[in-house]
Amino acid sequence: MDFEKHLNLHTIIMLRDVIRKWWQVELSYADKHGLVHDWQRGDIVPPPNDFCRMSLSSKEGLRRCGQSVRVLHEKFKASKKLRRALFHDCHLNFSILGAPIYIANEYEGFLFVEGFARQPLTGRDAEQLRAKMVPIAPPHSDLERAEDRVPVLDGAELSKLTDLLEFAVTEISNYELEQSRRDETLQSLNNDMSDRYRFEKIIGRSGPMMEVFRLMEKVANSDSTVLINGESGTGKELVARAIHHNGPRKDQPFVVQNCSAFNDNLLESALFGHTRGAFTGALRDKKGLFEVADGGTFFLDEVGDMSPALQVKLLRVLQEGTFLPVGGTQLKEVNVRVIAATHKDLGELVKRGEFREDLFYRINVIRVQLPPLRERRDDMPILIDHFLRKHHRDGQRARGLAPEALAILGAYSWPGNIRELENELERLLVLGGDMEIIPAELLSSRIRDAVVPGGGPFIPPRTHGKLHEAVEALEREMIQQGLLRTRYNKSRLARELGISRSNLILKIARYGLDKGLPDDEAEVEEA
Ligand SMILES: Nc1ncnc2c1ncn2[C@@H]1O[C@H](COP(=O)(O)OP(=O)(O)OP(=O)(O)O)[C@@H](O)[C@H]1O
């Protein structure tokens, strides 16, 4: 237990002060071994009682004072059931009053005051005291009339002091209990957070993302091949990295290759390496990325774009851990965990004969499906917050987005997913410069126009009030925006909205949206 900390508690500071002022005694603390740390450090507040002051200032006196305190400690230790204050007479026959500190039923030491008499000293008492001081006090110490300055605490005063001492002890144990409860709560929160956010760079709390995290937890410690499926910008590489960094291969290389980046020959040589003279320009042997990744993880992005010839080679590495460099004759052996990713439907490619079925089954052992951003809109606020922090530069003022900007971002369909959102926020921070709140006007026109065609103010959908009114308001808004978007082509709009043309015309009339519309005859039907 750290008494330094307790001394700084507001209540203890106040109590110490009150006790000092009212009774001229000092509140001190002995630990669970009966040691008074302040005294041992020589950090002694000189007590008004001159006898005690002299005693505490000499080595022998200090030893005797310490011994007296330890007797009280022994009493507390001997009777663990005793939770109240106790008296003991010190080596000078002054009183020590101590109250034990218990925290969660453990004895942790005691608070005490010492150096007072319980009744006025007689002349004889003073004589005896002076005699006791001879071996302790330095020669020629001035103890003339010292007995006049000895605090005397009789019955009523003593009971008040006892109450205060016990109150101080209760304050300390309450504080410690509170602290340990807080520590426990923090600990369990941290455990909770680390469970949930072991993949701390991946932001998401929506149901689909929690599903992804659960799966990642399971696969991180295994060595099995993983297939990550998801649209562009949904975080496939981020997830692959997180799986690698949370697994047993984390100290080994993580190598990335996008299979759609090169033509077939270049990709083969990049993946498997080549020998000298394998092709024009191959001046020396070159290691392939599979060799570089040996012991670690290889992230093969856009695996669906691999040619059939390379698919065979990949299957061999996956099944046997061996491959032949371009132009080589000797098989090389590697131990690589493969995480493949694609935005394509590999099952569909298999059906069309564009992807080997055996390879598909080999890499589709565990499939992590990353949801597009439009299907995890619940994550938008934390993602926005995350990217605003990530791209916020020192000295920049921007703290957030105006409500209209947030509403537009929330309504946009995000075809480029998180990458598009991240780029948009980075751009907004640059354009926002010194602004504290970034207004909707700064959003990319692509986003604004998609959500608010015609550039009017964005009216976010209602979330309260009567349902039929909200439905009607939404219906009116969709028809009005649709008419603008289709340039009043009612047949097209009816198709888009999934209602009949006559039904649309009725609704247009009902909502008063027909004013100023071109004649039906003038409407140009699309092919
Ligand atoms: N859940 C997420 N939390 C935070 N940042 C994310 C998240 N998902 C993706 N990102 C960020 O979005 C950007 C795109 O992610 P990443 O490159 O992993 O996507 P991808 O699906 O591999 O894209 P592509 O298919 O185009 O290669 C990166 O900057 C990444 O850090």
Automatic annotation (TrEMBL):
<keyword id="KW-0804">Transcription</keyword>
<feature type="domain" description="Sigma-54 factor interaction">
    <location>
        <begin position="202"/>
        <end position="430"/>
    </location>
</feature>
<dbReference type="Pfam" id="PF10114">
    <property type="entry name" value="PocR"/>
</dbReference>
<dbReference type="InterPro" id="IPR025943">
    <property type="entry name" value="Sigma_54_int_dom_ATP-bd_2"/>
</dbReference>
<dbReference type="InterPro" id="IPR025944">
    <property type="entry name" value="Sigma_54_int_dom_CS"/>
</dbReference>
<dbReference type="Pfam" id="PF00158">
    <property type="entry name" value="Sigma54_activat"/>
</dbReference>
<dbReference type="InterPro" id="IPR002197">
    <property type="entry name" value="HTH_Fis"/>
</dbReference>
<dbReference type="InterPro" id="IPR025662">
    <property type="entry name" value="Sigma_54_int_dom_ATP-bd_1"/>
</dbReference>
<dbReference type="Pfam" id="PF02954">
    <property type="entry name" value="HTH_8"/>
</dbReference>
<dbReference type="InterPro" id="IPR002078">
    <property type="entry name" value="Sigma_54_int"/>
</dbReference>
<keyword id="KW-0238">DNA-binding</keyword>
<dbReference type="InterPro" id="IPR027417">
    <property type="entry name" value="P-loop_NTPase"/>
</dbReference>
<dbReference type="Pfam" id="PF25601">
    <property type="entry name" value="AAA_lid_14"/>
</dbReference>
<protein>
    <submittedName>
        <fullName>Sigma 54-interacting transcriptional regulator</fullName>
    </submittedName>
</protein>
<dbReference type="InterPro" id="IPR003593">
    <property type="entry name" value="AAA+_ATPase"/>
</dbReference>
<keyword id="KW-0547">Nucleotide-binding</keyword>
<dbReference type="GO" id="GO:0043565">
    <property type="term" value="F:sequence-specific DNA binding"/>
</dbReference>
<keyword id="KW-0067">ATP-binding</keyword>
<dbReference type="GO" id="GO:0005524">
    <property type="term" value="F:ATP binding"/>
</dbReference>
<keyword id="KW-0805">Transcription regulation</keyword>
<dbReference type="InterPro" id="IPR058031">
    <property type="entry name" value="AAA_lid_NorR"/>
</dbReference>
<dbReference type="GO" id="GO:0006355">
    <property type="term" value="P:regulation of DNA-templated transcription"/>
</dbReference>
<dbReference type="InterPro" id="IPR018771">
    <property type="entry name" value="PocR_dom"/>
</dbReference>
<dbReference type="InterPro" id="IPR009057">
    <property type="entry name" value="Homeodomain-like_sf"/>
</dbReference>
